[in-house]
Amino acid sequence: MSAELATGLAAEFRAVMAGVATPVSVVTTLTDGHPHGTTVSAFASLSMAPPMVLVSLDRGSELLARLGHGSVFGVNVLGSDQASLALAFARKGSDKFAGVRWSDDAGAPRLAGSPGWLACTVTQLVEGGDHVIVLGEVQRAATTAAAPLTYHARTFGTHAAAS
To answer: Does this UniProt record's set of keywords contain Oxidoreductase (predicted)?
Structure first.
């Protein structure tokens, strides 16, 4: 494929994917007692028996460098009022947890106020282009009633029914 065609395909692919509404989550882990995390929109349920999820992380992700087979990670499914958390954890740097309330829940940082929580153990890392897909077996799950934060058309929002 020529460079011109590849560039056009990449632009069209980005446009198509911008039209897909995705949940917004912050994936977290602890290393030597210190919390680490990053915002992801590529997160999905994988299996019910056993309960498993998949998370896609950029190969250059600082969080990915801290995960290996058997590692514990958390998935904080954000609520519609947590766009500021999504932005804070999307940036580079080591001070993402500054001013953020969190607790250790099953070995991973759980962000206060997140309506969805999963504590997982890494079962496999799968290469996928410029990302690595982290497969995790769910060890703990918790939820509260709240509208989800979604990302669609390069904008945060929610797709919960209006009350």
So the answer is: yes
